[in-house]
Amino acid sequence: MYxxxxxxxxxxxxxxxxxxxxxxxxFALASFIRHGLEALxxxxxxxxxxxxxxxxxVLLHIVNNTFNDVLKRGYFKExxxxxxxxxxxxxxxxxxxxxxxxxxxxxxxxxVLVAICxxxxxxxxxxxxxxxxxxxxKSSAKTSxxxxxxxxxxEKTVVNLCDNExxxxxxxxxxxxxRELSDEVIAGIPVNSDINTVLxxxxxxxxxxxxxxxxxxxxxxxxxxxxxxxMGIAVxxxxxxxxxxxxxxxxxQYIGGKLVQTISMNDVATRSVLAKRLMDIVGGIxxxxxxxxxxxxxxxxxxxxxxxxxxxxxxxxxxxxxxxKMYKFRSMYPDAEKRKAELMKDNRVKDGMMFKLDVDxxxxxxxxxxxxxxxxxxxxxxxxxxxxxxxxxxxxxxxELSLVGTRPPTLDEWEKxxxxxxxxxxxKPGITGLWQVSGRSNITDFEEVVELDKRYIREWSIGxxxxxxxxxxxxxxxxxxxx
Length: 483
Known about the structure:
The protein is of the alpha/beta class. The protein has 14 helices and 14 strands. Helix 1 (13-35) runs antiparallel to helix 2, helix 1 (13-35) runs antiparallel to helix 4 (108-137) and helix 2 crosses helix 3 (75-99). It is flat. The two termini are 56 Å apart.
């Protein structure tokens, strides 16, 4: 009987439990360093903050799937991952303390020491655990695995299995289906049968499962699978990939009763989607509150300098080409859209796929003086600090935008897109995104923008969104230009 291997964060539940132990030790050590033996009498005092810290750590591990590639990370990369995880947890805890006005009741030194101890202890335990797994993998893994493949695919198949499944399998040997038996070792695995002797070898040796990496059209593959199944051996058949891009994510599922291979740019867990939407709702509510306050302050200034509506709406293209109406504070004169055509010759972005000017005379208060200098006005202030973006939090609450995503194009830009450009909207667009915080005022090559957006979609995680939001705040405060 084949026992399904745990997936996602459950696959490395041992690392998660050890990380919890690391946090407990970190709290104990930090309290002892700060309070000495008196720490024993302060357990109840720190219990609340410890439980919140623990909950934060567990949620971060589950949402970010922290240990997804833990066995493939080297010493330095593991240290960086550990530090990032602890820093995010520490920031969340500090925000929690200030929000509940508990910062005065908890020693700041203890909070800092916990982070330092947590990094050191967690990193050390992760390294020791990985060493133990590698040592066990060389001697007595849980499941005995045999590989049936071709000479061309052999080395790649072995390396992939050993890198990604070392804690699960012990590879017993290999059969090259397109060659006669020879005394050979490939990537450390002996070739000890050919297609004519493989069944006899499996019967004589201890083999729990068989991994087959053969072309789909390979003769007699179905008979081989049927025979192995009848022997009670679980058989893993590698699907021949459809498509040529290495970054494509593939998964197997049933649709309409048929087994299909699904190919996409990324495969996102339901819990991660829910976490992102929850973050959008919370951020949208806070953003809408600030928008109402800014309307009272900014609204009259906009109207005085340029009579007309305070808000500006424009049809943009959302996820998978669905149009929606996006809102902004009006930072341009009412005839801005009409004047766009005559200014297109000065567009900094090639091919007109986006519209950016060095000096935009449509912005409220912008004037080019006779000596060539530019005088800025209220519209520039609104755009430089991205104040014009705040009404988009209403779009976030409605589900048309996300806090972080790709830039939603205008209808005329969308119509110019080639097929590969449309990949930008395989996800919900956002108020800010990866390309906006990667030198937003300097990027003038649209293809570079597309690549950054595609990278965001392929590598997306909640942690990535949090980093982009933080960088957005820093970029805006640095007056890097409008999003």
